[in-house]
Write a structure and sequence with these properties.
Layout (H helix, E strand, L loop, with lengths): L6 H10 L14 H12 L10 E6 L2 H19 L4 H8 L11 E8 L16 H19 L2 E6 L4 H8 L5 E11 L8 H4 L18
Antiparallel strand pairs: 1-2, 2-4, 3-4
Amino acid sequence: MTEALSPPEFYELVHRRRDVRGQFTGREMGEESLERLLGAAHAAPSVGLSQPWDFIVIRDGATRAAFKEHVASERETFMAELAGERKELFAGIKIEGIEEASLGLVVTYDSSRGAPHVLGRHAIAEAGLYSVCLAIENLWLAATAEGLGVGWVSFYREDFLRQLLGIPAEVRPVAWLCLGPVTHLEPVPDLEARRWAERRPLADVVRRERW
């Protein structure tokens, strides 16, 4: 069987993936493309095959505007904790593309999925949450392969998002993803380019046998 993607192409894809904020075009995203991305996410491995995720597709302008207003408020809360150069640096960083993106995609975690006996979760309660993160990464890589952008918005309170979208109290909203066509993907992650943080060398985080 011929491989559709060579190992070098795959690794290039992994390193090309970006958290997109300012490059969304706002162009319509076709349902077929969205279904492929959701299919990739749904193909992710999950503890005990519990598949504890759900995906809420959000196109409504009023919903996105309300969420953006909430995120802006949380941005101000975070900025108030900063001082000096750090505060000045953060002031110039864009943290979301909620209205610029073609759509929003909220990924949730339902810990009751497969309960009460989720194979493999008895000792690590968070394993289900890890599974949801794997689904998100699957979707992110699939989007990158299709030339689309994804941005993870994390400046929000979970209770606000539950109320905004009618998410049941026992279900946890893990991520609001901004999704859609982009003008380009930056060669360097935005936070690195703006010197908010630097990527650690691989050698600094690899340990052998013991800590």
